[in-house]
Amino acid sequence: MISFAISRNRDVLRGLRLSGIDGVFCKDKNDLKTNFLETKEKKNIGLIILTESDFNEIEEEVTKVKIKNTLPLIVTIPGINGLEDKNFILKYIKDSIGLKI
Fold it and tell me: Does the keyword section mention Ion transport (predicted)?
């Protein structure tokens, strides 16, 4: 299984490509959504990497995949400027397991 990045930020894609992770550049939200839905269907993809801003754009679709499927694993990473939402991790844990830390 391979990792695959989907992003609207060329710098993020370049950085991930330097570490051996392939990806695709998306021009807009519709392109982002289309590429995400196509990529999740590929059997050889085990990990999809999205930046936080891209995740926020297609959060509904990503959440559906996370709830319904075990693979691919979908990971959200900070963008070039770091985390936009400083409480992202706490909110994610609360939404995932219903426990407030």
Answer: yes
Its pTM stands at 0.79
Separation CA 69–CA 100 (nearest Å) = 25
Q: b/e map of 50-75 (b: 16 or more CB within 10 Å)?
A: bbbbbbebbeeebeebeeeeeebebe
- Residue 52: both structure tokens together: 């936080």
The token duo for 38 is 């196509």
| 3-state class (DSSP) for residue 2 | strand
Which residues lie closer than 8 Å to 100 by C-beta, 6 or more apart?
90, 94
